[in-house]
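Translate sequence into structure tokens.
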Amino acid sequence: MTQPAPSRRHAIADDLRNQISKGHLKAGERLPSEAQLATRYAVSTPTLRNALALLQAEGLVEKIHGSGNFVRHPLRRARYVGGGSTPCALTAAEGELHTTIRTTNLGAHGHLTTLLRVSPRSPLTEFLCLTHEGKTPHSLARIYIPRDLAPADVPEGLLAARLPYLRPPLAVVQETVSTRLPTPDEATTLRIGSTLAVLSITRVATDTTGRVVEAALLSLPGDRADAVFTTHHMAEARRAER
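Result follows.
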């Protein structure tokens, strides 16, 4: 059976993908402007943008607002380790990720009142954590903590180490994982295409009194992150050894 001819956007994406794989377009290199590429391939600008969107979704090309489209440096895959005592459990084997933290005091509003089970305008502290690999954004986390449990000053990279000492012992950590398209703000902050799915993790930690002491919203682009959850069945393992 004769295979149908690829659409123009797929043909353009295939050609650019081939140039990237062969090194004709190198990592970090700026692509010609969208107008120049549209002229080169004799297509309309919307068709050309659709082709670039395919490459952006694959993580091969990133669009930087005001600068253009660039061949993306290969990014290290990182793991979110579920069930941990902190939401900052994103690790890379090579240790090349670093995190910047922005702290904001605010009153609970909208979905935060439900997540933390507090009344509107209850005092919270938000930690906006943006993880980078080199200069490239890698993942985004928003961590909300009742203000009386929040550290007053957090040096870069030490949030995960300080949180366990400031809050009561945890009784339950519930993590909800889903995939979705990024919000416009996430796409801009993480410099990803609007068609690249993100791994969305909502983590709610409760202490032994039933108080929610932390709610975290994590956005991990699907081209560079995995979520790993491990359950240890100690009783079954001991029975098997007998």
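Note: Residues 8 and 130 are 37 Å apart (CA to CA).
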